[in-house]
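Same chain as my last thread, 109 residues:
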Amino acid sequence: MKIVWSRKSATVRDVYEALLEHRQIAYTTVMTMMKILEKKKFLKKTQQDRAFVYQAVRPKDQVIRSMVQDFITRVFDGSAEPLLVHLVKDRHLSDKDVREITRIIQESK
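reply #2:
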């Protein structure tokens, strides 16, 4: 998804080649994942010459919000608190991150 969002549109080959710069992955794996994302309505495809060109259906922030909410619901029974506690305790949040989160919480009150 990140690659499609950054490029506005991409073929399976485009995504495959971009991913190869960071790790080994099979072309068929990328193709399968993009088909799944299309089936879930995250991507739409159009045919251009002999290839399908994929575009994101929803904006990045909307998809992230939906995925995070789904994760919190499935893993933490709908409560974000255990997730935040885990992130703080395992040092996944810097002091700067904690200050920013605190500021956002204060502004939302």
